Amino acid sequence: MSAPAPAARWAHVGLNCRDQRATEDFYARLFGFRRARVVEADGERVVFLRSGDVYLELFATAEEPLVKTEKDGPAAPGTARHLAFQVEDVDAFVAAAGPDLQVTLGPLEFDTFIPGWKTVWIADPDGVVIEVSQGYTDQSPEELARYH
Prior knowledge:
By secondary structure, the chain is α/β, with parallel strands linked by helices. The chain has three helices and eight strands. It has a four-stranded mixed beta sheet with strand order 1-4-3-2, with helices on one face. Strand 3 and strand 4 form a beta hairpin.
């Protein structure tokens, strides 16, 4: 029997950005991220943003996107489908974000699964799809036990 894996905690998500400032402003305005660190080496700048215990690491790039921004994100293996954030009220979030918000899908209601669960998918300035939802809850241990 092997030893249990050492404890680990979430660190960050690294995002490639065509315009670091626009991406930083987007996450600051809509999700409350603030600059936590800037690292400069060999003419390159990496910006770390923080919101609570969540960090985003922004890398500058001039490359073209590998996947097309649509719906709830790319289905290609090896790519992240989307980032996700919880809010109290999806409709209020969309209204406060303003007319420039790029909605890729929804808002959709998932009351069949969880009463009050509602989600909208949006895109950041670089096309990263972001799920914004309200009302998600975990299943009880009894409900989870039905799935093997």
